[in-house]
């Protein structure tokens, strides 16, 4: 009762019981007069039901299987075999009409019931006349007989018959046994015919559930054509607010799971920035900021149809539906080459789009072309961008057209947005018009802003209304003559008094403007211009073509929006206009006219140069191909009046706007806010930012002229003035922050770099430069420059791959310095009084245990690094140890420069009575230059907190970009040095007569080149006394003297013999006094030329 006949379970159970009884009767019957072919029956059958005239049919939707492996379903059931319980693994086959037990399994289950040949003993199995074949096969599967087996699964039990057959296939459980044991469950449901009447949106989703799930996938792949002359552009990673970082990562992960994007690890020529906008539901839309890429793309223009071209398809229609393509652009696949063009940077690495992304200049053209190809197969269907309208003169015709659309959508991979579908309506809004059975009518929303205008309350508001009338007068006959009574009120010496007659004229003029505006149709082939304006009350916009208004819009500002800076309110008007008229402007180029000139400049700058709130507004405009142009306010009659004369209430809650402050403490922010309010100049500046900058510089207050170049970057947040993301410091606090910037006694550029990331006031760079130049501490410890051409080391590709080390002394104490060549990060350790090789190794082991073992370590040839235990240390810790040229520290100039910087920093810190560690912290936290982060960020992957409030973010550096910057920086240093005064000395050859400079006396001794070392500019020289020394080319000069080395060597030998005789005489004299201890030892010289004095010890 109250159910479909085909879904009746009682009737189905009765039929199954009857069929089971018939099969048992057939199995026990004898057939003396029937042939074997007549008694043949297949195990698997195909039964076709007779088609009825009903539109409803039955289907199985779900089959739940106990266990599944690979492409087959298996189940393990319990069986009773006489000796006790056992288990049987069998295949679940719901298409089988019986159960199969292979003979090999029967032999294992009942070994006492088979003979020596493995055949069942006669009488143990019952005979069966049924012939068994596989589905679709003609060959017969040989059966031995029938065997009844007691089976159980979980809490169910059944005694069933198995056909024992000779096969190598697994045992099979038929549908009937599977149902008895609960191995499968059949869920049946009614599926209506796809030609049945459609009731509503929910009914349509029931009929075509797959058309409202997932994302679409059109056939073929699109190739983006690039101008060959365009230079590739690689954008750096944009900063992402910490509060939404997890949400952005979640969206990226979801897009990657949908195969919309893919992670990129190999280098690509084009890398765009990541852009994201918040949807009304709170989620984030991920798209590109392909400003540079769009300039290089060759666009395939696809004009959109005009309303006149599609209007005839609505003639006579009485039933309407509108649908919307879901993630329309993502339905278009990109080929491999085009996919790499869409690579973008994110805080979580690089990705590339595998589907057509939102934001490309060709996206709308390509999508419109594909939609036209799909919808041309669908009569009664009109498509404009991602909007689809289905019409019909009758409900039957409409449903047929809609069914056809859904079938074509499935064929071509088009997926629809169920939430934006409106099914079987008597009137629909489509492309700015309202269609119904009565015909086409203008959209009332186009003139809602005009209808909402209240009577002017003063002369100023009346002049703004008359501005609209003046603009519209060329399109409306006799409109100007009607305004004569209103113009009388704006004359001088006339008291403003609004009467009933004025109100009547006012309403008549509004009706005429509404009527003229609603009769103007939008033409996609004509240029589009949006006039926008913002006031303290609201924002207004007007859509025009060839000067003729098409639609008006306005909205009032919330309390929070009214506190925006003027440039932010003007940008808010642009965003509101684009989103309000999205149907008309999306996917095409158009012009924005604004009376705020800074908007024209800020849209041309890099997104990172804008203040935080403007950045978020600009991100919402990334998908629009617009050009902002300036137009004087006196000519902006339409939008100016819309923004001031009773704008409509907000259509949506306050927009998501979040400003991330630099991490100042609450106390500091209060101090800056209080000082700002007491600074007369900044108070005037604050008022100008809120009310708007004048159109000309000469109209600005003289004290603010210096801020004119930054006017498009100035904003206000909670009483604090910002330039971009930098806080403007009041004049009374500048000295304090100057001292903080120079607290580590760093140079001019470093101090300016620190200031560039957090604070600003006019002339800050000049004051920093003057302060550093006048700093007595910095002047006292000035540095000198080397004088030979630079031979740079190879830049490593990752941090802590190549490190250098050296020792230095400060205030009688020795220190070990280890610096990373990649990040320039210095590590300083104090050595004990005995700076032995063991002490150095012990400290190096501590550092390596924290930072890891480098691939290469470079040092000088000091005894601490040239000992046997250090060689063993390098072999044990598995790193390459290289040394610089003796007596030539410039060959390892990087570590020498690090020693200079660290020593001077420590000296200045002690002189200024600040902590050494604090000064070193400032050194490690200061950016290397304007394009490179600080050493701490390069090595540790994060910023460190210092005495200056800093915004600390968790983001990994980009190795490729940093590598290029380092290489460029080093090349510039080399070029600067080489061009100044450096020259290269000619090489020397083996056997050449030379002179060697003695570093202690400054004299040049005779020598001969014996070997050229593999190290740069390094040679082995034999001196006149027979010693072999290693020296750099700078300490060796060729000579053309004619006297031979042998004469010098002979003279040196004579001098040596005389000295030896003198020493023997002294020794004999000493031995004659055995009771007097010897407290003085003669010094001796090593092979490298160093004088060593033996330690004095007591004779024990």
TrEMBL record:
Organism: Strongylocentrotus purpuratus
Domain Reverse transcriptase as annotated: residue spans: 258-435
CDD domains (alphabetical): retropepsin_like_LTR_1 (cd05481), RNase_HI_RT_Ty3 (cd09274), RT_LTR (cd01647)
Domain (Integrase catalytic): residue spans on this chain: 795-965
PANTHER family: INTEGRASE CATALYTIC DOMAIN-CONTAINING PROTEIN (PTHR37984:SF7), PROTEIN CBG26694 (PTHR37984)
Bias-annotated ranges (Basic and acidic residues): 15-27, 1002-1020, 1038-1061
Name listed for the protein in its UniProt record: Endonuclease
TM region positions: none
Biological process annotations from GO: DNA integration
């Amino acid at each position: 009762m109250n159910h479909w006949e085909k879904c009746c379970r009682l009737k189905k159970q009765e039929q199954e019981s009857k069929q089971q009884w018939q099969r048992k009767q057939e199995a026990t019957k004898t057939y003396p007069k029937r042939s074997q072919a007549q008694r043949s029956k297949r195990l698997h059958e195909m039964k076709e039901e007779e088609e009825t005239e009903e539109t409803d049919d039955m289907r199985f939707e779900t089959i739940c299987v106990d266990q599944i492996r690979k492409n087959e379903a298996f189940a393990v059931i319990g069986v009773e075999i006489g000796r006790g319980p056992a288990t049987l693994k069998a295949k679940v086959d719901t298409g089988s009409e019986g159960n199969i037990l292979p003979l090999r399994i029967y032999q294992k289950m009942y070994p006492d019931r088979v003979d020596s040949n493995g055949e069942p003993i006669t009488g143990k199995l019952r005979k069966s006349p049924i012939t068994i074949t596989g589905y679709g096969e003609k060959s017969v599967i040989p059966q031995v007989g029938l065997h009844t087996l007691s089976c159980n699964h979980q809490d169910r039990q059944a005694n069933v018959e198995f056909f024992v057959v000779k096969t190598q296939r697994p045992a099979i459980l038929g549908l009937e046994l599977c149902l008895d044991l609960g191995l499968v469950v059949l869920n049946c449901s009614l599926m209506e015919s796809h030609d049945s009447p459609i009731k509503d949106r929910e009914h349509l989703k029931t009929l075509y559930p797959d058309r409202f799930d997932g994302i679409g996938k059109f056939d073929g792949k699109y190739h983006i054509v690039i101008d060959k002359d365009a230079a590739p552009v690689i954008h750096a990673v944009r900063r992402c607010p910490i509060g939404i970082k997890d949400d952005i990562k979640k969206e990226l992960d979801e897009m990657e799971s949908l195969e919309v994007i893919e992670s990129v690890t190999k280098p690509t020529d084009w890398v765009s920035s990541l852009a994201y906008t918040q949807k009304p539901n709170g989620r984030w839309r991920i798209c590109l900021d392909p400003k540079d890429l769009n300039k290089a793309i060759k666009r395939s223009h696809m004009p959109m149809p005009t309303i006149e071209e599609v209007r005839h398809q609505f003639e006579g229609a009485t039933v309407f539906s509108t649908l919307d393509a879901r993630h329309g652009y993502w339905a278009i696949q990109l080929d491999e080459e085009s996919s790499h063009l869409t690579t973008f940077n994110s805080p979580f690495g690089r990705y590339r789009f595998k589907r057509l992304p939102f934001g490309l200049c060709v996206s709308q053209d390509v999508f419109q072309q594909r939609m036209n190809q799909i919808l041309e197969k669908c009569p009664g269907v009109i498509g404009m961008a991602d909007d689809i309208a289905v019409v019909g003169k009758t409900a039957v015709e409409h449903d047929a057209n809609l069914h056809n659309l859904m079938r074509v959508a499935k064929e071509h991979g088009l997926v629809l947005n169920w939430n934006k579908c409106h099914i079987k309506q008597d009137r629909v809004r489509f492309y700015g018009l309202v269609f119904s059975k009565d015909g086409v009518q203008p959209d009332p929303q186009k003139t809602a802003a005009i209808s909402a205008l209240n009577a002017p309350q003063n002369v100023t508001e009346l002049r703004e209304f008359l501005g609209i009338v003046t603009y519209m007068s060329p399109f409306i006959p006799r409109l100007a003559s009607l305004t004569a009574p209103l113009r009388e009120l704006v004359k001088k010496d006339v008291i403003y008094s609004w009467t009933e007659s004025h109100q009547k004229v006012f309403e008549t003029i509004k009706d005429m403007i509404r009527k003229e505006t609603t009769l103007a149709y939008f033409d996609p082939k004509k240029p589009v211009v949006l006039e926008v304006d913002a006031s303290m009350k609201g924002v207004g916009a007007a859509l025009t073509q060839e000067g003729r208004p098409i639609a008006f819009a306005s909205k009032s500002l919330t309390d929070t929006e009214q506190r925006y800076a003027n440039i932010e309110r003007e940008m808010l008007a642009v965003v509101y206009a684009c989103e309000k008229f999205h149907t008309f402007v999306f996917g095409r180029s158009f012009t924005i006219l604004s009376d705020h000139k800074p908007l024209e400049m800020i849209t041309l700058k890099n997104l990172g140069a804008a203040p935080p709130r403007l950045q978020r507004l600009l991100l919402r405009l990334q998908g629009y191909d617009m050009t902002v142009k300036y137009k004087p306010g006196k000519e902006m009659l339409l939008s100016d009046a819309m923004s001031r004369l009773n704008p409509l209430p907000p259509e949506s809650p306050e927009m998501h706007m979040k400003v991330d402050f630099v991490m100042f403490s609450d106390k500091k922010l209060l101090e800056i806010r209080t000082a700002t309010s007491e600074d007369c100049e900044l108070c005037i500046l604050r008022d100008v930012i809120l009310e708007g900058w004048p159109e000309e510089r000469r109209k600005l207050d003289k004290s603010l002229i210096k801020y004119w170049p930054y006017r498009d970057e100035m904003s206000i947040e909670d009483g604090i003035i910002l330039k971009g993301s930098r806080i403007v410091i009041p004049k009374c606090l500048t000295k304090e922050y100057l001292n903080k910037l120079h607290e580590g006694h760093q140079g001019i550029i470093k101090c300016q770099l620190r200031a560039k990331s957090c604070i600003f006031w006019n002339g800050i760079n000049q004051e920093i430069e003057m302060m550093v130049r006048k700093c007595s501490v910095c002047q006292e410890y000035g540095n000198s420059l080397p004088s030979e051409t630079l031979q740079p080391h190879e830049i490593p590709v990752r941090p802590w791959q190549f490190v250098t080390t050296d020792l230095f002394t400060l205030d009688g104490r020795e220190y070990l310095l280890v610096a990373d060549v990649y990040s320039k990060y210095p590590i300083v350790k104090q050595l004990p009084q005995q700076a032995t090789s063991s002490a150095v190794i012990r400290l190096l082991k501590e550092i390596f245990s924290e930072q890891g073992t480098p691939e290469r370590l470079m040092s000088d040839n000091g005894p601490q690094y040239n000992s046997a235990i250090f060689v063993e240390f390098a072999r044990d810790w598995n790193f390459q140890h290289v040394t610089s040229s003796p007596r030539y520290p410039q060959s390892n100039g990087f570590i020498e420069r690090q020693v200079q910087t660290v020593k001077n920093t420590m000296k200045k810190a002690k002189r200024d009575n600040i902590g050494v560690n604090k000064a070193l912290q400032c050194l490690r936290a200061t950016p290397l230059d304007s394009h490179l982060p600080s050493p701490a960020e390069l090595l540790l992957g994060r910023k460190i907190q210092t005495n200056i409030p800093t915004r600390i973010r968790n983001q990994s550096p980009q190795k490729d970009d940093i590598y290029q910057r380092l290489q460029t920086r080093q090349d510039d240093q080399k070029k600067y040095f080489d061009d100044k005064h450096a020259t290269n000395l000619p090489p020397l050859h083996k056997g050449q007569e030379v002179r060697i400079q003695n570093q202690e006396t400054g004299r040049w001794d005779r020598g001969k080149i014996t070997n050229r070392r593999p190290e740069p500019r390094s040679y082995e020289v034999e001196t006149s006394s027979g010693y072999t020394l290693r020296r750099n080319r700078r300490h060796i000069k060729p000579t053309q003297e004619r006297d031979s080395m042998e004469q010098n060597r002979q003279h040196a030998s004579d001098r040596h013999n005389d000295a030896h005789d003198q020493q023997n005489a002294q020794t004999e004299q000493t031995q004659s006094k055995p009771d007097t201890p010897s407290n003085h030892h003669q010094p001796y010289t090593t092979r490298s030329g160093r004088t060593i004095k033996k330690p004095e010890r007591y004779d024990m």
